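Collaboration report, partner site 2.

Our partner group contributed sequences for two proteins of shared interest, and the home lab folded both. The records are reproduced in the order in which they were received, starting with the first partner submission.
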Amino acid sequence: MVYISSQNKEISLENLMRLYAAAYIEVGGEQAEMSLEWMDANADKVNLIEYVLVFDYTPRGSEERIKTILSFQTKEELLNEMQRVVDFINANNNS
């Protein structure tokens, strides 16, 4: 099953282990991926770089990370894309 993102990127959903939203932030010269909840609670203490939707294919127990990432400037764009993915998966699982 292949999903076409709003950015016209083809993303395979085969072997998808996790789908999650996150924020890339910068604090003290370091960059990190944090949960949206953490970002909301600490927005005044860090610099937001971008919001991301992560398609994680990493098998359990594997040290090598296998991911596809879509980047967004706003949280609204991110949440809209996430809803599109969920709708796509649901439509294809019900057919």
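Second partner submission, folded after the first:
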Amino acid sequence: MIQQEFLSTLKNLVPSSLVFSDILCKILDISQDSAYRRIRCEKLLTIDEIAKLCQYFHLSFDNFLHTDKSSVTFNYSSLNTQQNFKEYLSKILDMLKKMQGIPNAQIIYGADDIPIFHHFNHPEHTAFKVFYWQQSVLNLPEWQGQKFATYKIEPETIQICKEIYDLYQKTPSIEIWTDESANSTFRQIMYYWEAGLFENPDEMRIVCEQFLEILQNIEKAAEKSFKKASFELYQSEIQVGNNCVLVSFGNFQIVYLRHQTFNVMTTMNQDFCQETSAFLQNMTKKSLLISGSSEKQRRNFFQQMYHRIQKILAEIKQ
């Protein structure tokens, strides 16, 4: 029954610390008895109730209709305003919060770039990435013609990013990197330096030093196969081609795909998710596990990036 599948999916998205019937009561403004009647499928959900639940859990009901196996429904939000960008960050934070306490929750990240979560541990580096994305990638009008400075990014945005970083550290994850994954950040920093887009040149040094520390922390986590949760890091010789993220909530999965450099499309279509899972698992089999074991390969992998940052720091001191 579609309602049973729909509500079962929603239940998988609720942390074990919360009671699903309580969530239904809150969203639908109904009693506990009415909530349980819907959970047992004794009473059908109304169209309005389905809409409220889909809006709250950020999913499309099309995924449950099974009308055409060749069709996949994606959710897409254009990041065309500063407010949309902040909402995008808030959705990432909300997803990570929901994953806490859910058994077997995990993120598998095919990383064309360094996974976004890692950039959010230091305020200046966070501010630089947020500024760059909004000005140079999303081309938001209010940022055009400006030079970067940390103070221009709202403290609330920096705080959301820090919470994202902290929760990701507590979330089991598998990351698949290539030798090119760090290149975009290197190019972004050098482009802003060469174009004179740092309002205070000393902030470039700070951003670079913090980027170095970010990479060092990732290497330490890879060495232990642990951050504040299990962590596997793979080095792939095959280019990922696009950031692809598979989020698992127990037996339920969501796929996030990058679109137009930074925008994201999301689907909960389980056939598509299972195919994506098989693709990412196949990538790990063809890649070198550099967390836990393979000390020499791991060291060489990160040393290349350290050398590049140190070269940049030497250039700006001249």
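Feedback sent to the partner group on the second submission included the following. The chain is about 50% helix and 10% strand. The CA atoms of residues 59 and 84 lie 17 Å apart.
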